[in-house]
Amino acid sequence: MFRQALRQVSRQATSATRRTYATEAASSGALKLSLALPHQTLYTENEVEQVNVPSINGDLGILANHIPIVEQLRPGLLEIISKGGQTEQYFVSGGIAAVQPGNKLTISAIEAFKPEQFDLEAVKSLIADAQKRAASSDEVVAAEANIELEVLEALQGVAK
Fold first, then answer.
1. How far apart are CA 151 and CA 141, in angstroms?
2. Are residues 95 and 124 in the same domain?
């Protein structure tokens, strides 16, 4: 009886340690991008080749079959590469990007603008103003100015 129980446990342990593969990973479909802002939806499950995301952990290139992740966006350039190789760029000030099983990428951004919509001289002027406020003795004013500076300096890097 003891041998029988030992064989049963041994078989169960062997089958539990066998390598198995995820069925989702075998999918070879295109990456489906959804990009939403509080006031507008820019993409709804559009098939794209790649999306380059500015995350707080560094820039991240997302292709089809990417592992599921959730990333907080930092101010920077969001780059969308279509199936034909055309590139579309947006400056985002923050948000969340989530890669889900089934090749779905959902990005919720606070705001998104094309880089060419910004005037570089106006951005430089806003940076100078924010730098003055960042030196304020009022902690709240200084903290708000530092957040503004982070966004404006990222914007200065992509403004045309």
1. 16
2. no
pLDDT in tens, 36-71: 999 999 999 999 999 999 999 999 999 999 999 999
DSSP bridge pairs for 105? 33, 99
Q: 148 is in which domain, residue-wise?
A: 118-158
Nearest C-alpha neighbor of 95 from the set 51, 64, 131: 51
Taking the C-alpha atoms of residue 155 and residue 160, their distance in angstroms, rounded to an integer, is: 10
What's the DSSP call for residue 138? S
Under 8 Å between Cβ of 97 and 55: yes
Containing 42, the helix (H) or strand (E) segment is strand 40-55
pTM of the shown model? 0.74
Candidates 83, 1, 13, 4; CA nearest to 48 is: 83
Residue 42 sits in a domain whose CATH number is: 2.60.15.10
On whether both 61 and 123 belong to a single domain, the answer is no
Asked whether residue 142 falls in the same domain as residue 69, the answer is: no
> What would the pLDDT profile of 115-142 be if each residue is shown by its tens digit?
999 888 998 999 999 999 999 888 999 9
